[in-house]
Please model this.
Amino acid sequence: MGPTATDATVPCLRVPGEVVRQQIEAVLRAWGMREETLRTTAAVMTETDLIGVDSHGISMLPEYDIRRQSGRIDLTAVPRIVRESPVSALIDAGAGFGHPAAVLATELAIEKCRVHGVATVGVRNSHHFGAAGHYARLAAEAGVVAVVTSSSRYVSVVPTRGAEPVLGTNPIAMAAPAGGHPPVVLDMATSVAAINKVKVHAIRGEPIPAGWVVDGDGAPLTDAAAALDQLREQPDGGLAPLGGADESTGGHKGYGLSLFAQILGGTLTGSSFSLVRNATMGPDAPDNIGHLFIALDPAWFRDAGGFEADVGVIVDTLHGSRPAHPDRPVLVAGEPEWITRQERLRLGIPLPLTLCTAIRELADAAGAPYLLG
Model:
């Protein structure tokens, strides 16, 4: 999933990443979250904003507040290992935030694959965990190859040949170390776009591209507020799968990827299938989202350093290929986020004034200090 572009015409504050992290921590602390888990959650959310995935960072706090007030999230939860073997483990997130459980799963998968070459760690009974690519990147920075996938709370994706949503955006992320280059990181929703990207456009008052969201008749919506209403309030229509709503453009491939993200991230870990969960559980029931983390140590397959060097050659070759436009060089997965991170570390994270107002109101209601400006 690439970074979200910030339109210079949208009134924004540029806020240092450290201040954004402190603001998230202050709100989570006021809500009563445990110190060790709130620090992890705030760090992941801030890093997500730094790489430009604005849909999964501090902008999630208002939605988390709704889930907290409805009783769906247990703020005191501490993820725990409930089943384990030398090459696998299952973690119960305790109906808490997904970020601490996902970091624990990533670290455990890295540790196990160093000993046995490969490891798989699942998480059940979780909530939203932010950007899947964050955890894949953590593994690649530790020198291992990673695959991460997850089920989703919202039923929002219309299957190929369908008229109503059945699946979630169900992300898939993969990452690999690349020698002297930043890790190669692919992070993508299995829909054309994620709901939270539509939300970000609505916050900014920007239209969305045609093809992101379709109505109940399959017609594209471009007004972001109308699209968000379609996704959250209407029984039909929804996000198109990756490739679009039609088989002729490959939409059936995105549909298949979304299906297997549910099977691997959700069903394999004993987590819910949200379409069934939403029809059978009350509004205060935990989301019971599932995640899956796979890690492979290249040292078990290649001589030391050989894999990283060869990935580096691939990256150099791609960089050296002729671009269609001279001012837009060929990049590899993960580089747009890396470029955005360098810029935001230098200039600060751009936060729309509408979001800052929402965070101020949320902080005031929680009795937390407002720190953004």
In short: The chain has a mean pLDDT of 93. The longest helix spans residues 98-116. The chain has twelve helices and twelve strands. The two ends are 29 Å apart (CA to CA).
